[in-house]
Specification:
By secondary structure, the protein is α+β, with helices and mostly antiparallel strands. It has ten helices and 15 strands.
């Protein structure tokens, strides 16, 4: 989500603390005034925000779940028409909400940065809420000396921050939220192939957002949950090989435009294993209906099948070739331990 023509208006800082030893919320420390950034300092702040949303793999547009009174969206919209003093006081509710959402002492404290402005051309209003964690560093002083500090934030190399950006569509104010608003989240822990790595307490508990259920994400979840089931089952290794081959074939070679857990189970599993698999997928809350087969998030994983053995021996090949040319049998070896017999229907074409 590139941010074009970004301008930043008001900025206010509040500090959110780690929960107490007893697990109780510690009241945030509220800012008493606006953060006055000018010149290079303001440009540095803008550059951090722009750089974050330039990374498509670490930011994602989300669906707005919470939009009633007291939600982050409703509270942020109210700030637009307020005076500077009311902006300072009103923005403190975000610090309270984040402190409540951080339900574990394992979640670090940090600064709650609330800011507004415009973006795009024509310019449309937005407001942002950022959690910036504090970190350590050195500040150069006179005579090439240095001072150690432990309250740095938003330095160029650190990724210790998360941002929720709420952008208006520029139309006249609408009475029914979330109409006219979109929400995008940046989280350095998120990647294109692992959207679920985003901190749930931040985007869901605090911002009231949900990860959109798109087909590519659901296909990736189908692939990962099914592999986890095969890996954990007590089936003989030969049957596991067949199930892995079936999974790769079902996704990569099947000509259908949709996937469905019951169809996969019916095609590649006997009744007993099928029931166990379907129960596993229900526990993972995976949809039972058909979903579009968008392979964009799993194409890299489907390119090769790998069978690993002791001492770093690996058999690798395209899934269709492994399925058609490779047979795997497990037997008792001369030492009493299980051995694996691999038969490849073809001659050696080269060695290194």
């Amino acid at each position: 989500m590139p941010l074009q023509n970004l301008t930043v208006g008001r900025i206010c800082l509040h500090e959110v603390h780690v929960r107490s030893d007893a697990g109780a919320v510690v009241q945030p420390t509220y800012g008493a005034g606006l953060l006055n950034l000018q010149g290079a300092a303001l440009e540095a702040f803008k550059s951090r925000v722009i750089a974050a949303f330039r990374s498509n793999s670490q930011c994602m547009e989300m669906t707005i779940r919470a939009h009633g009174a007291g939600s982050v969206l409703a509270s942020g919209v109210q700030l637009f028409s307020t005076s500077n003093q009311d902006f300072i006081v009103g923005s403190a509710v975000f610090a309270d909400a984040l402190a409540t959402a951080q339900t574990s002492r394992q979640i670090p404290g940090g600064l709650m940065v609330v800011f507004d402005g415009t973006v795009g051309n024509p310019a449309t209003p937005f407001f942002g809420v950022m959690k910036a964690e504090l970190h350590e560093g050195f500040i150069k002083t006179a005579n090439l000396q240095a001072t150690f500090v432990n309250d740095l934030f938003l330095s160029p190399k650190t990724k210790l921050y998360k941002i929720g950006l709420f952008v208006s569509d520029g139309a006249q104010p609408r009475p029914d939220l979330p109409d006219g608003w979109s929400a995008t989240v940046y989280d350095s822990a998120m990647t294109a192939s692992h959207r679920d790595n985003a901190a749930t307490y931040f985007y869901s508990g605090f911002l009231g957002l949900d990860i959109p259920k798109n087909a590519a994400q659901q296909v990736r979840q189908f692939f990962e949950h099914t592999r986890a089931f095969i890996r954990a089952t007590n089936l003989p290794e030969e049957q596991k090989v067949d199930l892995y081959n079936g999974l790769y074939s079902y996704l990569k070679l099947d000509r259908g435009n949709t996937i469905q857990t019951s169809r996969f189970a019916e095609a590649f599993m006997d009744d007993e294993v099928s029931e166990q698999y379907l129960q596993h997928m229900r526990q993972e809350r995976f949809p039972t209906g058909a979903i579009a087969k968008d392979l964009s998030e799993v194409n890299g994983s489907l390119r090769w099948r790998k069978l690993r053995f002791p001492r770093q021996i690996t058999l690798t090949g395209p899934p269709d070739a492994v399925r058609d040319l490779v047979s795997v049998e497990v037997s008792n070896g001369e030492d009493g331990n299980p051995w694996t017999r691999i038969t490849i229907r073809g001659r050696i074409e080269g060695q290194e």
